[in-house]
């Protein structure tokens, strides 16, 4: 950007000579501008515009004074006003487009600044300062596109990782309860159980013989 400022200064000094043909206010503004009194120069140029709103030099020089105060959007408006006057001198048009490109570039409107520099070169193909600024703006645009692509790819990868993190993970299958294996009964255990059952049956028969016989009830329901 330092190089751009230097090229811009060269354009300003050239245009200040043209402006000396304007009113006393414009000439006063030029003196103030050369003394780096940009606010006072702005006031003087505005006074000149009140007398002649269609003055290319007053509009253009006011744009320069505003640019020095870092009022880039206001400076751009004045450069556009100057271009709208359609001066016959192509060097003037080229200078206005050159500084239009500078105003757009510092506002990070790179593609628009490239178009402005191209218009400046169309009117003054020999302006190496504009050619340098055009190449500089093109390099900035290329880098901007590369950075945007890197950021886009990075965000894409980040979103991909995020989706993978959010994807439900398969849970371990629950173990089904295994049927317990029955213990194989030994022959001795089986014989003991049979003996016990036989003894119970014998005891039950002996007890039944000792009980008196009772009458049976008639069935309420046929089976």
Give the name of the CATH superfamily of the domain at 2-146: Tetratricopeptide repeat domain
Look up the CATH topology of the domain at 2-146.
Serine Threonine Protein Phosphatase 5, Tetratricopeptide repeat
Task: Specify Rg, calculated over alpha carbons.
Answer: 51 Å
Residue-averaged pLDDT: 77
Number of H- or I-type helical stretches: 9
Output the CATH class name of the domain at 2-146: Mainly Alpha
Strand tally: 0
Which series of helices and strands comes N to C?
HHHHHHHHH
Architecture of the domain at 2-146, CATH level 2? Alpha Horseshoe
Question: Approximately how much helix is present in the residues?
Answer: over 70%
Question: What class do helices, strands and sheet pairing give?
Answer: mainly alpha
* Model regions low in confidence, pLDDT < 50 over at least 5 residues: 173-185, 211-223
Portion in beta strands: under 5%
Rounded to the nearest angstrom, the distance between the terminal CA atoms is 113 Å
Q: What general outline do the C-alpha atoms trace?
A: elongated
Report the biggest beta sheet as strand number plus sense, adding barrel if it closes: none
